[in-house]
Structure formats: structure tokens, C-alpha cells
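FAQ: What does a multi-protein file look like?

Like this. Sequence, then C-alpha cells, then the next protein.
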Amino acid sequence: MLKVGFVGLGAMGEGMVSKLLTAGFPVVVYNRSAGKVAPLLAKGATQAGTPRAAAEASDVLITMLSNDAVLERVTGGEDGVLAGLASGAIHLSMSTVAPDTSRKLAASHTAQGAHYLAAPVFGRPEMAATKKLWICTSGDVAAIERVRPVLEAMSQGIFSFGEDAGAANIVKLSGNFMIASCVEVMAEVATLAEKNGIAPEAVLGMLTSTIFACPMYQRYSSLILTQDYEPGFKLSLGFKDMNLIQSVALKSETPMPFLSVVQQRFLAAMAEGRADQDWSSIALNSRADAGLPYARFA
């Protein structure tokens, strides 16, 4: 059984580690905030004092971190992940980062005889806790096969996108752009309905149970209608992802006109101080543009 290290116990980490422990993997965890470690220690995990120590104790070291800068900081340096990886060990990066960040880190790992794989996930914390994540992978094919049991323990499906370490990150960013776009579209439809005297619940309820009957439309229509924006996936992280995909689009000369719309929605919400709300709260800006109060039920 592979020994697994896990660095970064944010909103997703506790559920993911719990599933690894349930599957029988020995897991050592590191988190900057020690308070998040205690529940996992009670379930059988052990604690490392540094990212390097977690890597030294692992065949597979997973990072689940908020952004590129944090990933690079935790990976590099004297106490970083790369310093602790043995030859042939695997760094499984499950963060949503720029493809070029993954490519750079893959090269530094290869130079040391280790492997870096991109494995970003689709799913919210409740999906992590119930093994319902979808995982995209890219990097060395043999290394991906080696970690497949680890990925299977945390997910309901795994999709591979080839040897380019950055490919899975492009897929993840594309998916996040599509989610943000569906939030914007539903917000506009709900606002249109309300302005014309039709219950938004009736409109979105009908559409998301018929021609748009899919999990994303159903989940986010519920958040929009109830205005249940705390806690969740932070709006600031959604804004970061829109900026990352814009960089990919510019570099590859790929026009993405609707990206500008959702990117500006995130920017407006950030300017209003809503960075810590769920990213679906960009729907509030559609209401404001139409002269409706933010709170539907005040």
C-alpha cells in the first residue's frame, strides 16, 4: 500500500484525507493551521512538522493549495516538498493553478528524479466528503497509473489528458469558466423573470429539471435562488481562475468574449468587498444592474 502525504487542509482537504484513510492508506498530513489537523489525527492520520517531512514519509505527496504562489512556496525551499521527495516519488498537485506553473514544477521534479503530476479536481467540499470528486490528470503516464488507487479512493471518475503536465490545468480552468458562465446566465434569467413578474423559482425550476437538467445548473440555481453564499468556494479564488484562463487564452491567441463578462462580474464583486462569499454570488450583480435589491427576501 502506497504511503500518502497530504499538504493543505483547506475546505476540500479533510474530506479527501478521510476517504484515503477509509481506503486503508497510511496518511501523514501537514497544514499551516494546526487546528484542521486534529480531526484527521483522530481518524488515524499522523502529523508532519513541515512539507518536507510529509514528503520524506510518503511515496505519493498530495498538495491541495489555494494558488500558484502558495504551491511554489510549499514545493521549494529547504523545508519544501521537493527537498523531501525520494527518487521515484510522486508529487500529486491537485490545486487549480496555471498550466505553466505545472510545467515548470514538472521540470524541477524530473531534474531531481521525482515525478510531478497535475490532478485538479471538480467538486465542492460535500463531494470530497462523499467520494464524488471528478479528477483530471496529466503528466507521466506510468506515474499516473501508479497513483490510480489513490485517485480512485477520492473520486468517482478519473480522466487523463496526456503527458503535458499543464494539460489537466487547462481542462480544470475551462470547467471553472463554464461553471461561472452558467451562474451568470442563470442570474440573468432569474433577474429577467423577477422584473417581469414571474417567480424565478418557477423559471429556473422548470429549466433545470428539463432541458438543462444537469448537476451544475441544479446546484447553482439553488444557491442563486436562496442567496446561500456563505460558506463556499471563495469568490476571490474564482476571480483568480478567470485571470488564469485569460492568460492561457491570450498566450494561445484564443478569443473568449464571454470570459470578459464573467471576469468583470468577479471584479465588481471583489470591489464591493465580497471576496469571501461563494463565487456564485456574482449573481447579485445582475440584480443590481436591473435595479433590484441584493436581498430578495429582506
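And here is the next protein:
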Amino acid sequence: MAKRGKGRPINGIVLLDKPTDISSNHALQRVKRIFFANKAGHTGALDPLATGMLPVCLGEATKFSQFLLDSDKRYTVTATLGVRTDTSDSQGDIVCEKPVAVTQEQLDAALDTFRGDIMQVPSMYSALKFEGKPLYKYAREGITIDRPARPITVYEINQLRFEGNEVDLDIHVSKGTYIRTIVDDLGELLGCGAHVSMLRRTQVADYPYQRMVTIEDLETLIEQAKREDISPYDLLDPLLLDMDTAVKNYPEVNISEEMGSYVLHGQPVQVFGAPDDTIVRITVGDQRTFIGVGQMNDDGLIAPKRLANLEPSVV
């Protein structure tokens, strides 16, 4: 039994619908306390302004959060035209205001320039680090750091609404894309400036939107458990997705329990017929128990890369 204050060895992923005006880390800590988990981590921060899908990894699932950081994302965003801010969102200081005289044809042409493979210069108000310090900390000190443009992919950018000085967009992008920067660049392209006034993440990888829960949902379940005199975990734990859902798009390699014991001790094993030179999801035995991810070499060896510590009391 876990010592009080240390948390439970609970493994899984909860799809939190993050509320606005709190940081992703604050939301993470609340979920960790509610589930009384021994470890927790999120898979890509949302700005305090933003709402929506924030996968929170609990326990051993934290070891695979990086794979979700690398996944595609989808957002709905409201761009307010005519006002540019230093943070490219409504929480920043206004740096420029211009009249808006944008036609539908101009908007269509501007949006088309963002589709496909493009280069993007990250915002100074991002969490990217320079010499170990986040860029936003330099920005708050009035310091601008030269940022090289990075390749990103905008798979889709669709207009949902264009009324007055507001444009609603649905955007599907690759990892590392800053929606605030797309909106700021759009405003500059249209000649009137723009900033994000609403941002909601609707998808991470292919996790279902319908499985998202709010902090209020979780707290309601705790109250329900008290009324029914049952453990809150009886109601909370079924909300968790299996931790291997973070890597389910990688090819599976199923090995015997004997081979699995070698892998769990950090030793590579020979596998025939598996894809060469790629990351694979490793499962063991007829039950296909997930034990981690490995790197396939071109000689048929699978080398452990990230392993779950599945003790008997945890499985």
C-alpha cells in the first residue's frame, strides 16, 4: 500500500478539458491530487487563455508522454483583426491598432498561404528555451532573441466564421506549431494586425473529443462516491485510458514472456519479420501486455528504449 502523501501507483491517461485562465501545470497538479497519483505529467502545455484537450499522464504513462508531444493537434481559434498584441493573444499589451477592411477574397488568399509545409518563426512568448531559459522570460525582460524559422505542416486551415473583425478557424497542424504565430502572421499578411481572442484544442493525436472530462466532472464523482460510501477511485479510475494509447500508432511487436523478461532487464532481443529501423510498441504473450517501446535495428534486434515498470501490484 502506498504511503500517505506519496500517491498511488496508478497508470493511465486522463483527457482533461482544461479550463481557461489557469496554467497547464496548475491543471495537472489538480488532476494528480484528485487521482492521488504518485507521478503525473502533461503532453504539451496550453496557454492559460486556451481551453481543451490536455492529456494528463499518470504513473508509468509519464514515460510515454513524449510521443504525444510529437503528435498532430487540432484547434479552433478566434482571430480578432485590427489589433496586434505583444503576446499575439488577448492577454498581451496592444502594440498596434488599424482599421479592418478585409474582403472574403483577401482572407481566402491569405489563408491559402498557410496550407501545407511552411516555415514558422516561434513567438518570443513561447516555452522554447534559449541557453536553458524559456523565451517568454526574455520577452518579459524586454529582450528579443533571434529565433530561426522551423518547418511545420498545416494539414488543414478552414474558415468557420467571418463576421466584422472576427475570424473563426479550424486548424489541424503538426507538432511544434504555434497557433498564436499563425494568427499574428495572418494579421500582418492582411495588413491590419490580429491576435488570438479564443483558443481551444479539440484533438491530440486521435484521442476522442468525447472522452474529455473537466475538473468539475472529477470533483462531482468524488462527491458522488462520498454519498454512496464507496472509494472515489471506483468512479475515477474507469476514466483512464490505457497508457499504451500514447504509442498505439507505432507498429506492434509481440514477443514471448521469456523474451519480455530480457527486454525488461534492458537487453536487446532478436525478432524476425519486424520493420527495420523504427520505433515499435512492445507487447508480451497471448495477453499482449504492453511493456514499453523499443528501437528496431536493421539486423533484427529490438533494443529497449522506454520501458514501463509494471510490478505485480500495479498491472
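Q: Is there any per-entry metadata?
A: Some entries carry free-text notes. For the entry above: The helical segments are 24-35, 65-69, 104-112, 135-140, 179-190, 215-228, 233-236, 257-264.
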